[in-house]
Structures are given as C-alpha cells and as structure tokens.
Amino acid sequence: MKKIILFIFSITIISFTTQAQKNKYIIDSIENVIKTQSNEALVKSYSELTWQYRTVNRAKAIDYGYKGIALAKKINFHAGLAQVYNDLGIIYYDKEQYDSSIYLYNESLKIRQTLHDDLGVAKLYNKIGIIYQRQGLFSDALYNQQNALALFEKENYAIGISYSLNNIGILQQNMGRLDEALLYHNQSLTIKKKLNDSYGLIQSYINIANIFKIKEEFVQAEEYYKNAIALSREMDNKEYLANGLNNLGNLQYSLNKLRESKQNILESYAIRTTLNNTKGRVSCLNNLATVLIALKQYDSAENVLNYAENLALNAVNTKPELISIYQTKSTLYEKLDNATASLNYYKKYAAYKDSLYNNDMSSKFSELEIKYNTAQKEKLIQQQQASINKNLYDISKQKLLLSQNELEIAANDLAIKKQDELILKQRLDSTKRENQIIVLNREKKIDQLKLNNEKLINNRKNILLIVIGVIALLTIWLIYSLYRRYRLHKEKQLQEAILKQEQLAATAIIKAEENERKRIAEDLHDGVGQLMSAVKMNLSAIENDIPFSSEEQKNAYKKVLNMVDESCKEVRSVSHSMMPNALLKTGLEGALKEFLHQINSQVLKVNLYTEGLQNKLASNTETILYRVIQECINNVLKHAQANNLDISVIKDNHEIAVTIEDDGKGFSTNTANNSEGIGLKNIKTRIEYLKGMVEWNSAPGKGTLVAIHVPVT
C-alpha cells in the first residue's frame, strides 16, 4: 500500500509541472502588459492573473486578487470589483476555506444585484449552493440552487438551467429521494444533449449511474459509468474521470469484481491527489478499505481507514464521507471479532447520520420545493390576473358611458315631471273651488250633527283621556327600556373595543420585540460576523508576507488571529441566543435543550421533562413559550438562589401545560401581585396573547412554582 501511495504522489508532481508550463506563457504575457495599464483595464488584468495563477501559485493568485479589489474600490469600478471577488472566491473554494469563499461570493452577489446582472447573480447562487452541498447543509444548498434556477429561467440561459437542475438532483439524491433526483437529472441530460455540452454530459452520466447503483440496478449503472469515463478520457477532464473511476470501482465491489474495483479506485485516488481534492480522496480511501475487507486484508484496511479518518476530521467538507468511514470501521471490527470497537463506531455512524439527515431537514427540504413551485404558479396567476384586470377596465369604461346616458335620460324625465306637476296644480285649484261650494251646502247639516254629537263627544272625552294616559305611561316605559338596552349594548361594544385594542397592543409589542431580536441577530451574524470573518481572512492572507523577526512575534500574531476567531464564535453565540437556530429547526423541545445545555450544572441542576412535542407547534406559540420559559429560568438564576430546577412541558389535544418549580428562597405572591414587576408583566402579557393563563405559587423560604396553561389552536 505504501508503494502505491508513493507512486501516486510522483504522478501528482508531474501533473502539476505540466499544467504550470501550459499557464506560464499566458501569465508572462499578462504580467508584461500590466506595466502599461491603469484603471479599469488594470483591474481586469489583475482578475485574469488571479484566475491563471489558480493552479500554479495560489499565494500569487490571492495577492493579485487583493490588488484588483483595492484598485476597483479606488476607481469605483463596480463590475470589475464583482469579478475579482468572484475569482478570489474560487481560489478559497479550491483551498477548502469555505467560510472565506462564501463571504467573497456574497460580496460579489451584492454588487451584481445592484447592477441588475441577473445572470451573474444566478451563477453566484449556483456556486454558493455547491459549497453548502459539500458541507452537508442540504436545505441551504437547495435554497440557493432554486434561486439560481429561477434567474437562469428568467434569462433563458439553457446551460445554467441544466447545471442547476443537475445540482438539485444531487441534493435530492443526498436526501434519499431517488425518483425525484432521477427526474431532475434526466431533465438536465436532455438540455445538455441539445447543447452538445460534453462536460455536462459526463456529470449527468455519473449522477444517473449513482442513482441506479443505489437502486441496485447495476447493469444500467455500469453502462452510465463507462460512458462517463470514456468521455472524460476523451475530454482529458481529470476531475470527472476520477469521480467516474471511484464510483465504478465501488460498483464493481458490489458485483464482487474485486481486482478491477481496486485498480479503478487507486487510479481515481491518484488523480484526486494531483487535484488536491480532500473530499474525493477520503471517498476513494473508504471504498478501497471496503475492497480490502472483502479481500480479508484487515491490517491494510485498518491503516487506510485510519488515514482517511484523519483526513476527514481535518477537512471542512467531509462530514458525509466521515459517516461512511465510521460505518466501514464498524464492519471491519466486526470481522475482527472486536465487538466493543464495532459498536462504538456504529454509534458514531448513527449519531452523525441522524445529525445530517433529520426529519426537520426533510420537511424543510420539501417546504423549499413547495415554495419554489408556488412561486412559479404565482407568476402564471399574475399574468392571468393582469389580463383580467384589463378586461375589467374596459368593462368599467363601457359602464361609465352607459351611466352618462342614463343620467341624461333622468334629466329629461325630471323636466317632464315638473310640467306634469304644474298641470296637476291647475286642476287642483279648480277642484278646490268646487269643493268650497259643496262645503257651504253641507255646513248646515254639520251644525245639526254637531248638536247631536256634543253629548257623545263629552262622554268619549273622559274615556279618551284615560286611554291617552295609559298609552303615555306605556310609551315612557318602552322608551326607557329601549334606552337602557341601547346603553348596555354600547357599553358591551366599548368593552370589546378596549379588549381588542389591548390585544392588538400586546400583539404589536410581542411582534416588535421578536422582530428586533431577529434584526439584531441578523445584524450580528450578517454584519459583524461577516466583518470578523473578513478580518480573519485578511489576516490569514498576509501571514506569509509578514517578515517575523522572532518566534515571539509570530506567536503574538497567532494569538491575535485566535482572538479574532474567538470573537467570531462569540458573535455567532450571541446571535444564536437572540434567535436560536434550534427553535427554527427542531422546535421548542430542541431549543430548550440547547439553552439548558449552556447552564452550569454545578450552579443549578436542571431537569427537563417533555411530552407530546414530536411535531412542531405554531411559530408564535413556540417563540412565546420559549421566551417565557427563558425569562423564568433567568429569574431563578438571578434571584432564587436555588439548587434544583424542574421543568415540564406537556401537550395534549386541548392544551399545553408548563410547570417551572425551583427550591430557592421564594417570594411573597401578595407583594408580587401588587407591584407586578416588568418581568412578571411581560410573562403575563405574552401568555394572555396566546389566550392562556399563568399562576405563581410561592412563599418566602418555600421555593416557587410557575404554572402556565395555553390552549392548543
């Protein structure tokens, strides 16, 4: 095995020498030209030298990159600055310094967004997604790839569409969603065939073969691997050739073709060593160890696995491969009848696997896909709505014309009606004269009737007065009843309005508080965190250029660098405390465990019991309960002087019950109820916002019990 590895490293030296000779002519030409250049032309040359020195001398590549950044900023050449950030990000990607690479890509992305360079933004989203995929951060990778795909589709950029589809297919495969992955890869393959994209075809062949291998359709998998290898040799593409050989070797192991498997894996390892691809080397070594175990060469397999594990632990993008190494080691020690070691490595394998492929990740993955598909549908709906709105506008114009015509007709009708009224008035006057004559004739008869009716009127007058009095009393009573009912109704409406305003005010306060926490956390993470990462990167970049006069100076520089690194960690810690990632990812139970893990058990022993929290609660409910429990725990730490704290969170079909009990010095509930400090008011306000109730049971020297009941909505 040692002879094989020495042979591989000799190949590495030859390969790098050949590549350097190819680039030397281009580099010399550009370095001669930059002596006569200035401003934007010089920035472009610095950018090109950054790219050309990529595989020849990374230190010089980085030096030219920072020269390009400095000059572009000085002359406000935004497009050139974006390109240099992009090229420098690729250099740090090759160095596997992914935090620095993402920082540089994001700086380039911000500039290209202001320049409305959608195609450049899409390519950066694609690159950022690839980094997250290498780190095993699959949901972040999917988010960026979907952004890239949407912009590529908007620009109708076929090659970009094919590569985003391919990368999304890889993410689907990583999550074990093989049928969805195969669908994306076939869509990508169709586009690449139309474009005659040989490099892209190699990638698609390998990815499709990987899926067939997992599905144990070995004949189809072998065919696709061989197509990819043949095309890679034809195109002299070392990276894809290494990928195809390693995967074919792993497939041949499954087919018990151990000699061919070992040969292909070793060739892949040799190529990946020349490319300085740590992730690929670890994968090759794990596959090689699997073959050696099958050949019963257990000592060699153990040495290979130990070397691979050391590589993986010291790299930043090998978490998925490290999981495979633990699984292979478990198998090896099982063969060696070392049950303890086998079990230990299987536990490591299971723990790492659960941390990488958890249910929340899968649900978040599905949620991102749904959001993307929904966005596509909303575009179509918006187009249809625009057409409908135009038709409605035309109809409104027609209705307006009809209304104007109807108004004119109404005016004419009004004039005719006035004429009719005048004619009726004249007729009424003539009728009135006739009636006067008739009245005079009837007056005599009326006088006689009056005399007869006077007696009857007098009798009825008394009865009428009584009836009027009764009616008046009933009317007064009815008016009073109606007035009282009206007043009660208004009072009820006023109380409801006051309650509604109080609830709106509480909601606004809670939302503002959470938004402010989130804003501060994002500012810390995206602002100060990114700035500290940039400082760390710049300090690292100039380390080789500083002529240290003594070892003490160098150690002092290292201490400064470590202090910057610790500052980065502290910023992340504060950011996560303000808005815990665990609350977003794993829900209330995971966030509480993460918070309680930070408490020193020697100061306060905390026992947490949860039940019924397997599924995530509503976002507002989780956030408010987390803040309330966090406030109670902080009160215990600050004031209670307790030794033990018991917390239980139980959810059933009707309510969520929370109890927080300590054995501290307690307090007088009468005093607390009268004063109602800010902390207790905040807790009470938040719980009432959830339509729940909170009770305190405490006395001096007898500890404190907080009971919270929130209905399930």
Descriptive overview:
The protein has 713 residues and is mainly α. The protein has a domain at 585-711: 2-Layer Sandwich (Heat Shock Protein 90), CATH 3.30.565.10. It is 80% helix and 5% strand. It contains 24 helices and 5 strands. It has a 5-stranded mixed beta sheet, covered by helices on one side.
Task: Please give a quick description of this structure.
Helix content is 80%, strand content 5%. By secondary structure, the protein is mostly helical. The chain has a domain at 585-711: Heat Shock Protein 90.
For this entry, give a set of tags.
single chain; 713 residues; mainly alpha; Heat Shock Protein 90; five-stranded mixed beta sheet; 24 helices; 80% helix; 5% strand; elongated; disordered N terminus
Work out the number of β strands. 5
CATH architect. name of the domain at 585-711: 2-Layer Sandwich
Number of helices: 24
Question: The biggest beta sheet, please?
Answer: 5 strands, mixed
Q: In whole angstroms, how far apart are the ends?
A: 64 Å
User: Shape from CA axes?
Assistant: elongated
What is the third-level CATH name, the topology of the domain at 585-711? Heat Shock Protein 90
CATH class of the domain at 585-711: Alpha Beta
Average pLDDT value?
A: 80
